[in-house]
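User: Small ask, check this?
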Amino acid sequence: MPRDGESLVLLGSVRYDLGDYDGAIGYCRRALTVDLDRSDAYRTMGMALREKGDRKAALEQFNKALDINSEDVETYREAALTLSMDGDPDGAIAKLLKALEIDPNNASVRCDLGTVLLKRGDREQALEQFRKALKINPRCVCAAEALKGSSH
């Protein structure tokens, strides 16, 4: 189905998961020729660009995705990861706080926020986020490991 945007984005996601970032970008670009409003295509393309080392272009794609769907928690998470990798913890925290406005009971977002806060040196705030993540999801490995490591 060469004109099915959803199938093309799914193929792009598979290519991304396989480490074929150029293939992921290609499928996402094809999906966008069919449907310019596919925020998931912009997000996946951003992830692939980040993995290729082009974080500026990745952030541009995440912003396009958020322009289309400002409630997409996963895009906020991906943008935050990219900002954190770029040495912008404040920008990453802002994206994660926006994601928490949308979904305050998302353990993964809280764990991401705790990780960024910890890197920034805000240990107590980080531990609070890890505790909240664990309260939301008692099987949250990220939070459990972070809290286990903090007892030393």
